[in-house]
Design a protein that fits this description.
Blueprint: H1 8-14, H2 17-33, H3 36-51, H4 54-106, H5 115-128, H6 130-137, H7 141-151, H8 153-199, H9 202-207, H10 211-263, H11 269-291, H12 293-312, E1 329-336, E2 346-353, E3 358-362, H13 369-377, E4 383-389, E5 392-393, H14 399-402, E6 406-409, H15 420-424, H16 432-441, H17 445-449, H18 468-480, E7 486-490, H19 498-513, E8 517-521, E9 533-538, E10 541-547, H20 548-555
């Protein structure tokens, strides 16, 4: 194994070179000890039975038992080393895989969230399973065949032919089953993705009577999967039958060849029996390779996939956050795009949001408001230009250090499975005083206390145990937990009633008094009352930006003289 400093998985595997070297040493001992049965039989038939010596038999038996004990101990140690190495290998790379997988999810690559960890599991299991033993034992096949040549050239030549036939069958099996196996994997992934996407919307499917229509579409995909699976199994079983025939034939033919040599006086009976056992030992690594061939290519695919993932999303080089943050946000020529979309979502935005002010971002649906919010937070991957926080590009700051300084309430509120306190505290160490302070500022303290378990009430997966308004207000408390310097709220009042609206207004005023920078996306004019500035976004461009009253005046059409008063139009 050669060392690679550019390949993440290779570099990690290289760190375990001593473990693999020790496995190689134990494999050498094991394979040497595996010659014991053949040599024991040879001595028993050719020496003990002829000499009729019980003492010789006892000594040979004790020596054989000792070698068997050494072999058993070596196999146990070899397996133990690999299992420990597999666990340490997983521990060495799982954090990087987790972060890279999370970055890929933010990048909206469409990759299955669990695929990276499935790949890691497949690779670890191969490294600690029988498949890796085949690679350590395979170099001994020529040595065993060489011993057969020493017994008789015909036996060695016959073993060599059998070895080549088994290698050819293994390669042929892989070749004829690869396409069908890939078709099964693709169809299975398609079926699973279809089911997962529909089960996420089970309530809509049931309410609108869409189940039968979706079942027909699922059945079409399932039928393709069954057809591909049946074809793959049929091909695989044909190859298994052919391989089984070859294995049985080689055992009988080798025994027959040995018997022929005994008849002709060119081999002893002990040599015949030993040769029969030895050829099985010589071909065992090839049989094991054939049995684990599929897992080898699964591990190889996982290895390549993990390398590609880690290469695409390397560990970022970040700098520490200098506290305290003021919360000054400056956007410089920001362009945001999305996969599969030609026109940019945001087209060359340049704007500065002063610290300690509340800015309302308004505009029609699809104008890029939510994308702007995500880009400012540094969580929209497809961007060009710069977003500066206190003069530092936000993408260069350490996310773990930056997180407590940011608050974010997304438009689609997702609470995580845990208690209300866990969610407000962002699943860190729960600071009871800070949690209660955040809850009181958002006006939900009394609401939480009315739950049977109070702050320890579980919210369920995705916050299913709560109403939309309750999830939004708990999400708001999470956003302001710890008094972050920059708070971004995306439609914070979309699910609120009048009481919630009033609580939101009070929360915004409190944040303003604390000198926090707040960016708030809203469609409701009531929320504009607490804003210092308004930014109007249309078609990914800034149309108006300035103090609230000036922007509202620019948005309000002049009233002709003598015309009756009309209600003010929604500026959003």
């Amino acid at each position: 194994m050669t060392r690679s400093t550019t390949n993440a998985i290779n570099a990690t595997l290289w760190a375990f070179r001593r473990e693999f070297a020790s496995v190689g040493v134990f494999s050498l001992v094991i394979n040497l000890m595996l010659l014991t049965p053949s040599l024991y039989m040879l001595q028993v038939y050719d020496r003990v039975l002829l000499s009729q010596s019980g003492t010789t038999l006892a000594v040979l038996s004790m020596v054989a038992l000792f070698f068997f004990a050494v072999m058993g101990f070596s196999e146990w140690i070899r397996s133990r080393v690999l299992v420990r190495a597999g666990v340490r290998f997983d521990e060495a790379v799982n954090t990087r895989v987790f972060r890279a997988n999370f970055a890929a999810a933010l990048d909206q690559t469409g990759r299955s969230p669990s695929q990276a960890f499935t790949d890691l599991t497949n690779l670890r299991q191969f490294l600690t399973g029988n498949g890796i033993f085949a690679f350590f034992d395979a170099p001994w096949t020529p040595i065993y065949i060489g011993v057969l040549f020493l017994l008789h050239p015909m036996l060695g030549g016959l073993a060599l032919v059998f070895a080549l036939v088994l290698v050819g069958l293994t390669w042929l099996t892989h070749r004829v089953t690869r396409a069908s196996t890939e078709a099964v994997l693709g169809s299975s992934a398609e079926v699973n993705a279809f089911l997962f996407s529909k089960l996420k919307n089970a309530e809509v499917v049931e309410a609108l009577g869409m189940l039968d229509s979706l079942r027909r579409r699922w059945r079409n995909r399932q039928n393709r999967l069954l057809a591909a699976s049946g074809q793959s199994q049929d091909i695989g079983r044909r190859m298994q039958s052919l391989t089984k025939f070859t294995r049985l034939a080689q055992q009988s033919l080798m025994l027959g060849a040995g018997a022929l040599l005994v008849i002709e006086g060119e081999l002893t009976i002990g040599g015949m029996i030993a040769a029969s056992v030895l050829v099985g030992r010589a071909l065992a690594p090839i049989d094991l390779l054939a049995a684990t061939w599929k897992s080898f290519f699964t591990a190889l695919s996982a290895y390549r996939s993990l390398n590609a993932l880690l290469a695409a999303y390397p560990e970022p080089v970040t700098q520490s956050v200098l506290s305290p943050l003021k919360g000054v946000v400056r956007v410089e020529n920001l362009v945001a795009t999305a996969p599969g979309r030609q026109a940019p979502i945001l087209d060359g935005l340049s704007v500065e949001f002063p610290a300690g002010e509340i800015t309302a971002i308004i505009g029609p649906s699809g104008s890029g408001k939510s994308t702007l919010a995500r880009a400012i937070l540094g969580i929209w991957p497809h961007t060009e230009g710069q977003v500066m926080l206190d003069g530092v590009p936000i993408g260069q700051l350490d996310r773990a250090e930056l997180g407590p300084h940011l608050g974010y309430l997304p438009q689609d509120i997702e609470l995580l499975d845990g208690s209300i306190a866990d969610n407000i505290a962002r699943f860190g160490a729960v600071d009871a005083d800070a949690v209660i302070t955040a809850a009181k500022r958002t006006g939900i303290h009394e609401m939480i206390l009315r739950f049977p378990l109070g702050y320890d009430t579980p919210v369920g997966t995705g916050g299913i145990a709560l109403s939309g308004g309750q999830r939004q207000r708990i999400g708001l408390a999470r956003a302001i937990y710890g008094e972050p310097a920059l708070i971004v709220l995306d439609e914070p009042n979309s699910n609120l009633d009048d009481v919630g609206e009033a609580a939101l207004a009070a929360t915004l005023r409190a944040l303003k008094e604390l000198g926090k920078t707040v960016l708030m996306i809203t469609h409701r004019p009531q929320a504009l009352a607490v804003a210092d500035r308004i930014l109007l976004l249309m078609d990914g461009r800034i149309r108006l930006y300035g103090p609230r009253d000036q922007v509202l005046a620019a948005l309000t059409p002049p009233r002709p003289a003598g015309a009756p008063l009309q209600p003010t139009a929604n500026p959003a």
